[in-house]
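Notes from the 1:1 (GR / supervisor)

We went over the backlog. Supervisor wanted to see one worked example end to end before approving the batch request, so GR pasted a single chain during the call. The sequence is below; no edits were made to it. Supervisor asked that the structure be written out right there so they could see what the output format looks like.
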Amino acid sequence: MKTVVSLSRRTEPYFYAEKLAGVLTGRYPPERVHTVVIWTKFPETVLVRLRRVLAGYAQVYVHLTITGLGGTAVEPCVPPPEKVLAQIPALIEFLRDPRRLRVRPDPLVVLQRKREVVSNLVTAGAVIREAASCGVKTFSSSFVALYPKVRQRLARLGWEVVVPAAAERQRVWEELARTAAANGATLYACCVPGLPVSRCIDGALLTALHPAGERCRLDKAQGQRAECGCTHSVDLCWYTMPCPSGCLYCYANARITSCGDRRL
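Structure output shown during the call:
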């Protein structure tokens, strides 16, 4: 079977597009690839930087993350949500099917620094409504994963993580799920203990959407978290390719780099 290629769980491909284009076409030319799955916070990754290369592949599926925090102190180098949302119609046109686009108001997070509070528990609903109005049918989210390196980074920068009580988390999740359903869409949990397992890379879905009906592997991906239901894919990025977006909750690297090249 042809391969599902992922770009990338490990870094933001927007910043490495030229290198990744060479790696993709060199290792996995179109005749070997079932689907290219792009994970990004920047629509330009697909619409501009990788457009010419991706156009040569049979199917492209995009995970577009819009937390609603772009441009804030928490995501200093990510575009604001209104700019990203405005590009969804162009993305759907390129992908040729709205089912090939999943929007991710992910992670859900509340941070406090002195009197400053930054949260997307409420604004995530607005992201869902706006994206659904453009035709998006699927969403994924989770609550921020507080790995030790994340806690240490936030503490060093003076931020305190506000962890909602279990009842509040349940209320927030149910409200977001209702918002999605009311707009003709579905919200999936990405590795959230206690919620149903979902597949961000879903071989059955990618097979159903493939323009030639070609099948891909359905076996569970190796090396993912226990709550992850994703099927097999090959990720072409490395954790040694740091993302300059500067997101304070980033768990991919112990230290993160901002767009101003400032070490955090």
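Supervisor's comment: The chain has a mean pLDDT of 94.
Batch request approved.
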